[in-house]
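Repro:
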Amino acid sequence: MISPSKHVDAFIAKFDPPMAKLIRSIRSALRKRFPTATEMVYDNYNFFVIGYSPTERPTDYIVSLAANSKGVGLSFNHGATLVDPKKILLGAGKQNRFIRLPNAAVLREPEVEALLDAAVAQAKPLPESGRGCTIIRSVSAKQRPRKTLGGKLG
């Protein structure tokens, strides 16, 4: 039986090395930001996704890292209800909003930290202690290519 950690490593290894490095750095930063959250992993047709949730329910996720061959985004589950004075959130859906993450340092920008704090405040409470687990929720047999021609970030 393969551990969830080994599965995640294999999913990330499908990407070009620069993108894989970016995904790992953002995942590490999110894990530090949400140490007690459950990581829910999806290797779907369009995107590789890791959601951070206070529970094992997919609908409870606070934010998720979403990656494809062109880049990485940070999706806010209830982003449409977040106060966004700097207008950095993208998307026009009824619920979800996202930002693009060219690097993990974006997560430390004050306006992004404010959005993360607000997203946590409106979500179910995260466990106060312990270490969150990683759960592989789904893997699609058919997937869009994870690598780009030439291996360069878009």
